[in-house]
């Protein structure tokens, strides 16, 4: 893995200071209020844009920061040190597949999103389609005037902030993944309804809503990209999201937890000495540091390989991202568990950041595909590869 450049170090420091100054002071209220006001959200977005952190994954030709994969990973790692809703607001939830749209779609949806004027949600999950995204049942039918959308989505993140959605829907029944397309759906269209709110065990402050589509009439230009190419577009978009917004943020949370563990072990005294002097506590801190370093190395090597193209096939890249997703999120789970053990009773109440990170950590192994699904993707690549160790191989 190549060392990061001076400009990348400056990006890391800029992001670290932004998190410390602008985001950490907002954490306390999220657990009790279970939300972020629109005013505070807009302020974060504007400050992040001024700091050069917003929409880092979008090319400069569209007004984004144009970060490389490595640079976006470095940014998201720093954002991961705080709560999920704050990271989402500061980094921007601008999906790369919007750049595949027509000129009119780019003007109407992508460019305002990059400017922080519009907010986009990704509507894929359904009651019968979680990790198996190809099992979605939401339908879009061709009409004389465009398209007609019907169905239900759930667990849609940030729906309350979003004014339009990228919706995955079946356009060719019977073809499975090859019959799925993506559509741009404005929230104010007749027939659109925000359904119930899901109060999740973690990610407090981030809304997760049900979306109901009651025979919504869509214009001809609502189709994003090519017809029946939605599943492939989703794979590309979600792959990048898993690497940056799951893998990198998980590593960032691990590092914050390690800092809290070390701080507590240094200050907390029992039996006449600090608990950090006891062997079992030192072992938990050492194990956490080792595993975080390994998770970060896998994350960064994968990002380097993607930027360099490295002769990798799409299958190999998908498998590497899956390996990152599994290893970083399960590392976070173990680190969070050790942190709670070290903090003891003082880490088990709702005013403790360790307690909230512990709940968040458990969700990381489920969101964007379960660990089991991603292990299967890694295994498929191992069977098909001739490399001695076909995971993030350079």
Automatic annotation (TrEMBL):
| Occurrences of domain Acyl-CoA oxidase/dehydrogenase middle (ranges) | 122-215
Identify the residues that the record assigns to the Acyl-CoA dehydrogenase/oxidase N-terminal domain, covering every copy: 6-117
Its keywords, alphabetically, are: FAD, Flavoprotein, Oxidoreductase
List each copy of the Acyl-CoA dehydrogenase/oxidase C-terminal domain by range: 228-382
Could you identify this protein by its name? Medium-chain specific acyl-CoA dehydrogenase, mitochondrial
Q: Which InterPro entries match?
A: Acyl-CoA_dehydrogenase (IPR050741), Acyl-CoA_DH_CS (IPR006089), Acyl-CoA_Oxase/DH_mid-dom (IPR006091), Acyl-CoA_Oxase/DH_mid-dom_sf (IPR046373), AcylCo_DH-like_C (IPR036250), AcylCo_DH/oxidase_C (IPR009075), AcylCoA_DH/ox_N (IPR013786), AcylCoA_DH/ox_N_sf (IPR037069)
Tell me which PANTHER family the record gives: MEDIUM-CHAIN SPECIFIC ACYL-COA DEHYDROGENASE, MITOCHONDRIAL, MEDIUM-CHAIN SPECIFIC ACYL-COA DEHYDROGENASE, MITOCHONDRIAL-RELATED
Which superkingdom, per the lineage? Bacteria
> What CDD domains does this protein's entry cite?
ACAD
Q: Which cofactor does it need?
A: FAD
Report the GO molecular function annotations.
Answer: oxidoreductase activity
Family the UniProt entry places it in: Belongs to the acyl-CoA dehydrogenase family.
PROSITE patterns in the record: ACYL_COA_DH_1
């Amino acid at each position: 893995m190549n060392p990061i450049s001076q400009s990348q170090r400056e990006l890391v420091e800029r992001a670290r200071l932004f998190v410390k100054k602008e985001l950490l002071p907002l954490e306390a209220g999220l657990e009790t209020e279970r939300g972020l006001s629109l005013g505070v959200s807009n302020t974060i977005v504007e400050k992040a844009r001024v700091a050069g952190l917003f929409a880092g994954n979008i090319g400069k030709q569209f007004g984004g920061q144009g970060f490389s994969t490595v640079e976006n990973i470095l940014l998201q790692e720093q954002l991961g040190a705080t709560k999920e809703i704050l990271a989402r607001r500061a980094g921007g939830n601008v999906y790369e597949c919007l750049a595949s749209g027509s000129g009119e779609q780019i003007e109407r949806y992508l460019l305002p999103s990059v400017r922080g004027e519009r907010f986009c949600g990704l509507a894929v999950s359904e009651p019968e389609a979680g990790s198996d995204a190809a099992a979605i049942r939401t339908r879009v039918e061709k009409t004389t005037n465009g398209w007609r959308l019907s169905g239900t989505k759930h667990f849609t993140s940030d729906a309350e902030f979003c004014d339009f959605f990228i919706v995955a829907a079946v356009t060719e029944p019977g073809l499975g993944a090859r019959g799925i397309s993506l559509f741009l759906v404005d929230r104010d269209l007749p027939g659109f309804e925000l359904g119930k709110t899901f109060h999740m065990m973690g990610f407090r402050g981030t809304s997760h809503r049900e979306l109901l589509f009651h025979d919504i009439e869509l214009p001809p230009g609502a189709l994003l990209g090519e017809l029946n190419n939605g599943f492939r577009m989703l794979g590309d978009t979600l792959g990048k999201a898993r690497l940056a917004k799951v893998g990198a943020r998980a590593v960032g949370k691990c590092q914050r937890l390690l800092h809290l563990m070390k701080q507590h072990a240094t200050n907390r005294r029992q039996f006449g000495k600090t608990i950090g002097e006891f062997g079992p506590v030192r072992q938990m801190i050492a194990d956490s540091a080792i595993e975080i370093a390994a998770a970060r190395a896998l994350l960064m090597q994968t990002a380097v390989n993607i930027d360099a193209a490295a002769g990798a096939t799409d299958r190999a890249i998908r498998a590497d991202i899956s390996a990152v997703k599994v290893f970083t999120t399960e590392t976070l789970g173990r680190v969070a568990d050790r942190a709670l053990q070290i903090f003891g009773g003082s880490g088990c109440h709702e005013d403790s950041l360790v307690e909230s990170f512990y709940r968040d950590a458990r969700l990381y192994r489920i969101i964007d595909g379960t660990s089991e699904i991603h292990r299967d993707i890694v295994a498929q690549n191992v069977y098909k590869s001739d490399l001695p160790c076909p995971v993030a191989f350079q």
